[in-house]
Amino acid sequence: MASIGTRSAAEFFGTFWLVFGGCGSAVLAAKVITPEVDTPINIGIGLVGVSLAFGLTVLTMAYAIGHISGCHLNPAVTVGLTVGGRSKGADLIPYVIAQVLGAIAGAGTLYMIASGKEGFAINNADAGAFATNGFGAISPGGYSMLACLVAEIVLTAFFLFIIMGATDKRAPAGFAPLAIGLGLTLIHLIGIPVTNLSVNPARSTGPALFVGGMQLTQLWFFWLAPIAGGVLGALIYQAIAKEETEAA
Length: 248
Known about the structure:
The protein has helices spanning 4-29, 46-69, 75-83, 92-114, 145-166, 176-195, 201-211, 213-217, 221-247. By secondary structure, it is mainly alpha-helical.
């Protein structure tokens, strides 16, 4: 097994890629207006493209660093896997620190690129500004805090359920990254209109630091809800897998 320093470095670069690739697709590519026609047309990738981009970041990194660090890229995943007995407790703090730093670096790099375009500005009164998450007034669809809480907990719980099931030693070998990446794509398709979808406290932290305002004051929510969901999903899978093992 690689040292904790090596594994943390892998988590740093993996989370950088997730934030840069996923949030970058939202900031740079979701809306691209053609300038050369009389009637402007959006040729950007939209909600479906952004959802797919987030899934692809995890899929590609799972193959790239899964054998090094397990490719958590997410404090909620690390906490859930620790509770579920799939990750060592000693790795929790180093992994989370590496993930948050990677997310900040990814958001910072994205900001450097985005701000290079004339007229670029971040309005923290806008829902989803710079790919941030929010509830209430800064929910993309205007969803209440309770609705956003339920969405983040449920979607993170199912994400952990997918991760634990796909990486179970009884699951088909080599296909876990596909299941996890497509699972993340699916939950983005569901959750982007609600909270701009977090399910990942590090992913929420990086962009929020560059936006400030309500996005920053609501950041606690996008730590609490995903971690609660991650623990719930891990415990549910653990209970089902245990029952299956006993039955066998």
